[in-house]
Amino acid sequence: MRVQPPVELGDGLVFRELAPGDGPALAAAYSRNREHLAPWEPARSEEFFAVETHVRDVEATILRFEAGLAVPFVIVDGDEIVGRMNLSDIVRGAFQNAHLGYWIDARYNGRGLATMAVGLAVHAARGIGLHRVQAGTLVHNAASQAVLARNGFERFGLARRYLRIAGEWQDHVLFERLLDE
């Protein structure tokens, strides 16, 4: 099942769906970006960075994709993963909603990749018939908030102590993008 064909982003970078063999490259990307991502993600055990962990995660994520519950993407530079983007927690019925999450390799920050990739994920969400996409950012994550704003997301609330990030329950600003407007 393909939702979004691969898209060339320039400079050899490609936005594409997660593939079954991506576990080792994903493990390498998380290991390479361990310090860069630490302030923005849950606290990670050593086991999280193991190749086997990401091989299993990729398999489970592809099963959720095949079940229509998620659409996982990566940004690659050759064989190296340099970004991840997920439409997750897809709910159909009266809601037609997904949550959006993403990160970009520290070496590639500031190139507009997150903005392009969010736009492509929104396009994919529209293509599978979703009505809305929502995302949350830490209150102090101005860069991610700017990426969302550039893609037509609007702030709609503040979730207190929303997620346990970097070992602490932290507030998140909530954003939404209605896809049928």
Automatic annotation (TrEMBL):
InterPro entries: Acyl_CoA_acyltransferase, GNAT_dom, N-acetyltransferase. It comes from the Bacteria. It holds the Pfam family Acetyltransf_3. GO terms for molecular function: protein-N-terminal-alanine acetyltransferase activity. Residues 13-180 form the N-acetyltransferase domain. One of its GO terms (cellular component) is cytoplasm. Keywords: Acyltransferase, Transferase. Its EC number is 2.3.1.267. Transmembrane segments: none annotated. Belongs to the acetyltransferase family. RimJ subfamily. This is Ribosomal-protein-alanine N-acetyltransferase. It comes from Agromyces hippuratus.
